[in-house]
Please model this.
Amino acid sequence: MIRVPRKPLFSATAAAAAVGFAVAGLTVAAAPAASAAPCTDIDVPVARGTGEPGTLGFIVGDPVFSAVQNRLRPRSVSSYRVDYPADLGQPASVQKGNTDLVNHVRTQAAACPSQRFVLVGYSQGANVVDNSIGISSDGAIVGGPIVATIPADLAPRIAAIVLFGNPIRAIGRSVTGTYQSRTKDYCAAGDPICQFGGTNILAHLSYGGEANDAAAFAAGKV
Model:
């Protein structure tokens, strides 16, 4: 007999909306410098979460990039803010991010033959990264179908992937295949965006505390 999962008391849609309102009200502190150099050793494209303020994202992107920079010294590290709406009100938001991230990696890889990449995605931004590496986020909260993927010949240059509050986990999906061993996917206990039935929306705002751990993981892969 097939069992149909019971509907969680706290819906993921409501949780995503709550996160958008919560991050919109955050006070933005000074963010680390994030201008991409033409050809650094490591480039860190970051797809921020829904409505997230900050240069790369106040909750995840800014602290993770700063931690990666510190961990990888003296190697040169640049960053890229994925250009997409990160907006619940735009149905094609994830697809726009998916397209921009893939285009960025392709352009950088062509211009900088020795450059490698660490991909970072938080919440809706994790869906952007999922799609870009060929793992569909369609059916997940703030997800969408794949519209572009990083070419197979560039896969070896994707050194590491770090994801936070990844919505595909709430529908039983995860990163598998080529990038599985290079991916660390954080889901805090009770986070309703990545855990089916989760009810602790504050858990979804807690991932900045994992910045140093994420940087250590990335450093071990580059």
